[in-house]
Design brief:
Blueprint: H1 2-26, H2 28-39, H3 46-70, H4 77-80, H5 84-104, H6 109-114, H7 119-131, H8 135-159, H9 167-189, H10 192-198, H11 213-242, H12 249-300, H13 308-326, H14 334-355, H15 358-365
Helix pairs in contact: 1-7, 2-3, 2-5, 3-5, 3-9, 5-9, 5-11, 8-9, 9-11, 10-12, 11-12, 11-14, 12-13, 12-14
């Protein structure tokens, strides 16, 4: 019977690993970068990802440039240099998601499969990875933000005639924010894995659950996710100021909206999963404490009849119970806090840079 149970668990663990592979293939950013890497016949590593990212940015720039040429606009590089910015932004957004994925998910597939403690928990994890990254959802999410960004650019161009907009720029902005939207989708959906875990039974180190390797890796990973979101928010705010309408109130308002949105995404992607990781830790602590208290109570009920050896055993159980009670309720370490604080400071710094027009100040000083 035990052997059958073990075989059933191994089968489910394999299904969870396969589901993580499915998720990896469905993440839009990874799929696009990996496709370019395969077309170039490169080994899938960091260097290849950089080359693929530059290739993607170049293709977006050329496509936007061609759109301008088709409608009869000047085709000189000087006339079309603004198209470089959203093209680079699109590539960088995809690159960030790809790097974050490759540093966290592939090395930990088996550990993720071993994390759930029972059949229901394994099934919950398998289903999350199967359904979380459906391509249609990602595309719809990204299109929504891309259209919003194009409308924002249109509003800016009406208020500031000096901001030269054209078909190519709108195409570039659409592509850039589409890529950022995919990162935003990942930032929204990935933390829900922690909430799935908090409703399941997890395999944790019983005497200090917060020190469990899977918990520590997850906590650090969500810190990196918050930092990645902060970097993307920083780039978006810099993009808003990049075309130099610094003096306008509308620019300030739009940049402020993106700053607040960025902070909201950063805080959600950090605080929400950390709360559920703490919940997982707390649940395991309570289970272990209750188990020990049952054993302690059995000794206590016949306290007067206990031998010295039994009293010693009871004392050790009490000490162990107290040790578990005093263990950490959270897995957040200094590294995770550093990533979160950085993800808050970076967008603010880019906002301040644009508001007080630091580039022009430096230019005047020089």
């Amino acid at each position: 019977m035990n052997g059958l149970a073990n075989e059933a668990r191994k089968t489910l663990e394999i299904e969870v690993v396969n589901a993580t592979l499915t998720a990896s293939n469905q993440i839009l950013s990874c799929a696009v970068i990996n496709r370019i890497i395969n077309l170039l016949h490169l080994k899938n590593n960091a260097s290849a990802a950089v080359i693929a990212t530059l290739m993607l940015s170049t293709l977006i720039f050329v496509f936007a440039w061609l759109m301008n040429a088709l409608v009869g606009l000047p085709i000189s590089l000087m006339s079309n240099w603004p198209l470089i910015i959203p093209a680079l932004l699109a590539g960088l957004a995809f690159f960030i998601v790809k790097v974050l994925h490759d540093s966290i998910l592939p090395p930990n597939r088996e550990r993720i499969a071993r994390f759930p403690a029972d059949t229901d928990s394994l099934l919950a994890f398998r289903n999350w990875f199967k359904k979380g990254f459906r391509v249609r959802r990602q595309i719809a999410f990204s299109i929504f933000f891309a259209v919003f960004a194009v409308l924002t650019t249109r509003i800016l161009s009406r208020d500031f005639p000096t901001l030269q907009t054209n078909l190519g720029l709108y195409v570039g902005v659409f592509c850039g924010i589409f890529a950022i939207g995919n990162g935003g989708y990942c930032a929204w959906i990935i933390p829900t894995l922690a909430s799935t875990g908090s409703s399941c039974r997890m395999n944790l180190f019983p005497y200090n659950p917060a020190s469990t390797t899977a918990i520590r890796i997850a906590s650090a990973g969500f810190g990196k996710l918050a930092l990645a979101n902060g970097i993307v928010a920083t780039l978006v705010i810099l993009l808003i100021f990049a075309f130099r309408p610094w003096q306008g109130r509308m620019t300030l308002q739009i940049a402020l909206i993106w700053l607040l949105v960025g902070w909201g995404v950063v805080t959600y992607s950090f605080a929400f999963p950390q709360y559920h990781l703490a919940k997982i830790i707390s649940q395991e602590k309570h289970r272990q404490i209750e188990r020990l208290e049952v054993l302690i109570e059995a000794y206590h009920n016949r306290l007067e009849d206990l031998s010295d050896k039994e009293i010693d055993k009871m004392q050790k159980l009490i000490d162990l119970r107290d040790r578990i009670f005093m263990s950490n309720d959270s897995a957040i370490d200094l590294g995770a806090w550093r990533d979160y604080i950085s993800s808050i400071v970076l967008p603010l710094a880019s906002f301040v840079t644009g508001v007080i027009n630091i580039p022009e100040m430096i230019k005047d000083l020089l």
